[in-house]
Amino acid sequence: MSQPGPESARWFQFATSMNSERDSETTFEEDSQPNDEVVPYSDDETEDELDDQEPAVEPEQNRVNREAEETRETLRKDCTWQVKANDRSFHEQPHFMKTRFFCIKESKYANNAIKTYKYNAFSFLPMNLFEQFKRAANFYFLILLILQAIPQISTLAWYTTLFPLLVVLGITAIKDLVDDVARHKMDNEINNRTCEVIKDGRFKVAKWKEIQVGDVIRLKKNDFIPADVLLLSSSEPNSLCYVETAELDGETNLKFKMALEITHQYLQRENSLTTFDGFIECEEPNNRLDKFAGTLFWRNTRFPLDADKILLRGCVIRNTDFCHGLVIFAGADTKIMKNSGKTRFKRTKIDYLMNYMVYTIFVVLILVSAGLAIGHAYWEAQVGNYSWYLYDGEDYTPSYRGFLNFWGYIIILNTMVPISLYVSVEVIRLGQSYFINWDLQMYYPEKDTPAKARTTTLNEQLGQIHYVFSDKTGTLTQNIMTFKKCCINGQIYGDHRDASQNSHSKIEQVDFSWNMFADGKLAFYDHYLIEQIQSGKESEVRQFFFLLAVCHTVMVDRTDGQLNYQAASPDEGALVNAARNFGFAFLARTQNTITISELGTERTYDVLAILDFNSDRKRMSIIVRTPEGNIRLYCKGADTVIYERLHQMNPTKQETQDALDIFASETLRTLCLCYKEIEEKEYEEWNKKYMAASLVSTNRDEALDKVYEEIEKDLILLGATAIEDKLQDGVPETISKLAKADIKIWVLTGDKKETAENIGFACELLTEDTTVCYGEDINALLHTRMENQRNRGGVYAKFVPPVHETFFPPGENRALIITGSWLNEILLEKKTKRSKILKLKFPRTEEERRMRTQSKRCLEARKEQRQKNFVDLACECSAVICCRVTPKQKAMVVDLVKRYKKAITLAIGDGANDVNMIKTAHIGVGISGQEGMQAVMSSDYSFAQFRYLQRLLLVHGRWSYIRMCKFLRYFFYKNFAFTLVHFWYSFFNGYSAQTAYEDWFITLYNVLYSSLPVLLVGLLDQDVSDKLSLRFPGLYVVGQRDLLFNYKKFFVSLVHGILTSMILFFIPLGAYLQTVGQDGEAPSDYQSFAVTIASALIITVNFQIGLDTSYWTFVNAFSIFGSIALYFGIMFDFHSAGIHVLFPSAFQFTGTASNALRQPYIWLTIILTVAVCLLPVVAIRFLSMTIWPSESDKIQKHRKRLKAEEQWKRRQRVFRRGVSSRRSAYAFSHQRGYADLISSGRSIRKKRSPLDAVIADGTAEYRRTVAS
């Protein structure tokens, strides 16, 4: 193993020597109210980072001490992940190895291969058999098989259990194998992608799975990033790199990353990258997508690293020809994999219920067998011992014979626990999954994306959903912003009007062909606005679009003569594109200028300052000098902040306010535009303050904001824009249908409160009649409830019955909108922080330890009660919107509802930030067909559009639930009817564990004779059509209330089976007593009796499934009559003399079928038995459908009249002037825009100097940069 070089060794020793112990913890209580505008701390944020977020004014001496200790603080114990560039042997040193299994060791650094499969060629058979025998039922039948091999206790041949068990194990193994092969293919597809890696001194093409930590890689435009890498250099100015993060968060707008200045200068060429030997110490792998802390040691200097320099796996390189990076985290250690949450094994509610019922059957089986064994012991004592003809040559005591018979009855009655139940359930689920995959009405042709059931174990649970938790961006919305309307100088534009200002319901789109820069993608119908722009009658109209073209931080490049805009948010891109189409095209910018084409005339303006957006300011401004020398400030922002800064003399202020109310009622995202003329002297004075604030070393942002406030006042209002955050097709209709099905929708998003609220109105989750409650309202209500509970929780609390109080009066339509910060406040989810001064005293006495433990328990109980109260309150609301929440908070909300409401939940999302939520919910749905596929990879079901959710739940989910319930009820019934005949027979055979049927009939009953009809019902049955299922969502509630399969239904099936078994046994028994055949002989032998019962049983159970079938097809009818015919065919073959000659010991019923079934009265006995079994069922069904019809019975009765499907109509909005208080603040990027890049000139392309010249002057230049 090669050793690291001397320089890296020095840095390694330097780094490790600076690790220090952590400080003790204290609880962090915020003094201020939660901030609605910010996303709360990251999921795994360390306490030290929380310290850094605390604004504080520190004394100068403290600041000096802090800076002196900065090196030590950076290399805390948390930063233990060490990476050496271009040195794989460094990461294989002994102290980086960890024990995996016994003495087998491996490096703590994961390789880049992703593994989701479970088996390989060698482990499949043993591991699969081990997993299958972990199931109680399979293990039970294995024990039975062993017992049947003991001749003293078995009256049943061993193959009666072996054959069904092999079928069950084989089908399950094949299914598991198919699933695992698919996982292998998916893993190979990802792991075998290629990129360029430095090997042997040059870049070589390598597969992703071969990449290791410390490798230097080269990525090209449109490449997926294979690991978490430190950006070293790129083809862009200042080594900028643009990435698309759709795989992480579903957003398609570009983000930028930027390399360190030193790596940008020195690591551009292949030979310099080959010799790069930097050493990095950073935090351990974690799931924080927006945080990174580390240090690069190189050239005897240390350089801080943050998230802006890290390219995350799953992102895509855009608008960057190539870039170079150093792999920091690989494979399972990458942030996208860490953020995927723990994979949970999901099982349905019916699964759990079915297992409990099987356990119940086990108990019944043991009790019945014990009772019969006791009966046999008594019979032996009373009769058997005194009957010489029953002597078997064994001198066993009656009690011992009873003990042997106990195991004999366990074997005979084992079919009460149906061996084929689990495999039949798996086959039905597999078939239902294929129906979902094949559903053309859930196929999205635009992206060629079908629906996909990625699991086969949860289908019936789709019919029992109570709560749906949905992401917003990319799930409810398309994340496509469209310029729809505007208000200029008090006049609203955007309606369907011609050039003469006359309104038309049908009018052609505006033709933008007169504009050479128009992109042809804007659909606009107001021809009067074009007339106003071209005529120039109102200068404000042109000024309005000029402002949109100049006041932004959009980047532009030209490809094949076409303008391509890159915006920090899709809203900003939509506005700049709108200005471009209306004749004011943004063409180019430099560090100090911006060039605009104004109706074909190019003009360049000097940019004096860009006052960037942030979540507190809610606006951005730009100060420009016109070619004529005038200075103007242009500003755009949310109306709430713009109106506070307007000049008193604004004649169109009220008209614009009315327009904003109209736009808000139409759920459009609004934005106010204004400007101001600035005198030269005023600007000079302000610029001095601006430059001074720019150089402040602490609290620079706050200082700049104060300076911005001074210039952004006395503004002149131009108007307002209205942008549509385009919903996916069918979202309001889907939400309306789900609400009628009593499914509650919760929206969990990282977006801003105003934006999320407006989307709530757009998709009709919220209406004008909805009373909206916010975080502060909820906090007050919960505080009051906690006080009341504390007052009632006195000494006598346990004697007082619990009181269920509602938070709101009944009958009111309420919704809850809460931010992540308020969520943490309400749920007492506070982070802890480190105290630099206080040191907690550890408890020294037993009393102190007891008090501390008690205090901790009280805090936990209070937290739990608070969380339960919040869930109760939220569930009283018709809709809940949680905004500004982190991925961990999304999962926490889902978990709270699961825990405290015991309700079935479904989560749907499209980005990596939804993965934790998707895995936490009972069912996870991923939106596929978008750029990001991480959510799909972790989901149980996937499709391309949110609207398909209604079909997945209301059609496939409901059908699957009904089919599975019908299947289980019938399956238990037919097995009870079959098995309990042995019980009745035991009263007539001395409880001797003698079977009532032929051995081969017992073997094939569940496998061939009665399996196909019930499987087809489980696959094909439907009470009403898919169209009627969608038209009447109220049908869905039967699954939510567990009405079709529960313990009551189970015991009904049990009683039905018991009664059927009695009829099947006692009617033939009565018919056989003192009976003489046509030939004068009495065919009342045991074998003829067994054939009669078996024939009646097969006809009864197959006709019973016919009565249970709601949806008849040729296949159903063929399976029922085919099963009966198959039984008779096999029976006559097995009772033939030929097969008896070949296998005399296995086939002993020679000639029984042909002899017995030629007697007419035996056929009459069979017909009578079947009639007595089925006629009461027919009568009860007729009465129930006539007197107590279910909702589906009524719909099925009138299905012809209901065939004309009712069209869903969107709710009409009523606009009330001056009443609406809703407003969607302009959705700038969640982070600052590109203003810093633009003003610093780092994003502007310059002719790059030759690398040799750079290196020659490199060291001195770099030192000057650091010094500055």
Textual characterization of the structure:
The chain has 44 helices and 37 strands. It has 1268 residues and is α+β, with helices and mostly antiparallel strands. Helix 16 (539-550) packs across helix 17. Helix content is 44%, strand content 16%. A nine-stranded mixed β-sheet has the order 17-37-36-35-18-30-34-32-31, sandwiched between helices. It is found in: Cell membrane; Endoplasmic reticulum; Golgi apparatus; Membrane. Its EC number is 7.6.2.1. One of its GO terms (biological process) is Golgi organization. Belongs to the cation transport ATPase (P-type) (TC 3.A.3) family. Type IV subfamily.
| Helix/strand/pairing category | alpha+beta
Tell me about the largest β-sheet. 9 strands, mixed
Computed CA radius of gyration, to the nearest angstrom:
38 Å
Distance between the termini: 42 Å
Indicate the mean pLDDT.
81
- Principal-axes geometry comes out as elongated
**Residues in β-strands, percent:** 15-25%
Number of strands: 37
Which ranges are low-confidence, i.e. pLDDT below 50, for 5 or more consecutive residues? 1-32, 42-77, 831-840, 1214-1221, 1246-1268
Question: How many helical stretches?
Answer: 44
Helix fraction by DSSP (H/I, runs of at least 4)? 40-55%
Which strands sit side by side, in order, in the main sheet? 17-37-36-35-18-30-34-32-31
